[in-house]
Amino acid sequence: MQNNSPSNPSNFPLWRGSGGGYEEDLSFDQTNIWHPYTSLTKPLPTYPVVSAEGVRLKLADGRELIDGMSSWWTAIHGYNVPELNQAAQDQLGKMAHVMFGGITHEPAIKLCQKLVEITPEGLEKVFLADSGSVAVEVAMKMAIQYQHAKGQSQKSKFMTIRNGYHGDTTGAMSVSDPEGGMHHLFAEFLPKHFFVDQPKNRFDETYEEEELAKLDQFFRLNSDKCAAFILEPIVQGAGGMWFYSPDYLRKIRELCDDYEILLIADEIATGFGRTGKLFACEHANVTPDIMCVGKALTGGYMTLAATITTQHVSETICNGEAGVFMHGPTFMGNPLACSIAIKSLELLLNSNWQNKIKGIERQLIKELIPLANALIVEDVRVIGAIGVVEMKDPVDVPKAQKFFVDKGVWIRPFRNLIYIMPPYVIDETDLSKLTQVIIEYVSESNT
Fold first, then answer.
1. Quick one: average pLDDT of 308-334?
2. Contact indicator for 240, 388 with CB cutoff of 8 Å
3. What is the pLDDT of residues 114-134, one digit of tens each?
4. How far apart are alpha carbons 22 and 16 in whole angstroms?
5. Where are the domains of the chain?
6. Cα 249 off chain centre by
7. CA distance 18 to 24
8. What SS3 string covers the chain?
9. Architecture in CATH of 84-350
């Protein structure tokens, strides 16, 4: 019988290779290319993808996997989307890129108009960035320049929540969890900020007065040194997939106002419908002073992000010492990415996305919540199109990955979490396949 394992291929007609063929290419990948959070001395298996369509990834050996990750939460419309393909082709016929310094173009203008229209009221000024991490860096620099312009240059630190994650660049790392997170090795290098304990109450619970009192004290002790409070609203993503009470977010908004510091909402993972609201801040009916968006902005086609702020913040910055905002990425406002983003937002807003997300949520609750009874499971959480199974012990990622691929699904665990954030276009049958394989994995691991 033919062996179609990606680690020991015998026939891969779909793999064009680079001259040396599949095995040589894969060997180069394993020994020379760093994948996210991987080792080159003890490389993890990689699964070569040759095409993607709808909610399926096609491997070089011909197998197809139902994608449960939306390519790290970006591909909300699935893959090979005709409308997005056409938007890219149309823009390529005009220009792929021009510098944004001293030049503007219709795709950037139209995209920024749409972002101002759909984000919480009061967010009006848009800075286009390259990626989510850069959008966070931009937000932090906005907050520093804002306080400096107000004559409060001593407000140079940030407050945030433990177990958060805001990206892998230096500023973003410094406001991610400093101890239990992914960046503790850089602790002596990074600026020191102020961290409050992770909120304990779940999304559907009313916040306890005792916890709110702790927030009051935290602000009293630290706000005079801080430019802003930065957080992931409602859903803490890569820091642990924790969903917390909207009461907590409302309280932080009130305290930021009371102590005259800015509120930065990192909506990079939660934006564009993932939690059941267009933006997670809407669960608490709050408007941040600065909002970061990215990931799903282009439907997973190209890297693009934005940092959006209020007229008050932008005017204060521009009336300060520099007279300008001090940032400008080379590929800022890339026309190709902007054109695709415009079409992606159009597809989302013209779809019945609220019902789609609600349907995914109901199915995830029905099919995953029973796993909470398993002895090896610590907790199961669902909000919108996010389903999380928290195990009591760390997951053996290579072993789990092989199990999932052999079962025909793409799920990428991390630490002790098995989670899915599927494309919004997934149907009930394919979603059930994802949940059933998770159930099977837990069942086999439980024996």
1. 96
2. no
3. 999 999 999 999 999 999 999
4. 8
5. 42-80+352-445, 84-350
6. 19
7. 9
8. CCCCCCCCCCCCCCCCCCCCCHHHHHHHHHHHCCCCCCCCCCCCCCCCEEEEEECEEEECCCCEEEECCHHHHCCCCCECCHHHHHHHHHHHCCCCCCCCCCCCCHHHHHHHHHHHHHCCCCEEEEEEECCHHHHHHHHHHHHHHHHHHCCCCCCCEEEEECCCCCCCCHHHHHCCCCCCCCCHHHCCCCCCCEEECCCCCECCCCCCHHHHHHHHHHHHHHHHHEEEEEECCCEECCCCCEEECHHHHHHHHHHHHHCCCEEEEECCCCCCCCCCCCCHHHHCCCCCCEEEECHHHHCCCCCCEEEEEEHHHHHHHHCCCCCCCCCCCCCCCCHHHHHHHHHHHHHHHHCCHHHHHHHHHHHHHHHHHHHHHCCCEEEEEEECCEEEEEECCCCCHHHHHHHHHHCCEECCCECCEEEECCCCCCCHHHHHHHHHHHHHHHHHHCC
9. 3-Layer(aba) Sandwich (3.40)
226 phi and psi angles, rounded to 5 deg = -115, 145
Chain CA centroid to CA 154, Å: 31
Instruction: Lowest mean pLDDT of 111-120, 199-208, 391-400, 413-422, name the range.
Output: 199-208
Catalytic residues: 37, 165, 266, 295
Residues 6+ away with beta carbon under 8 Å from 211: 199, 200, 201, 248
Does the pLDDT value for residue 332 go beyond 50? yes
Query: Could you say which of 3.30.450.20, 3.40.30.10, 3.40.50.1820, 3.90.1150.10 is the CATH number of the domain covering 42-80+352-445?
Result: 3.90.1150.10
Please tell me the distance from the alpha carbon of residue 242 to that of residue 200, in angstroms, as a whole number: 9
**What is the rounded CA–CA span in Å between residue 397 and residue 395?**
6
Structure confidence at residue 180 as a pLDDT band (50, 70, 90): low
Tell me how far CA of residue 260 lies from CA of 215, 418, 446, in angstroms.
15, 39, 51
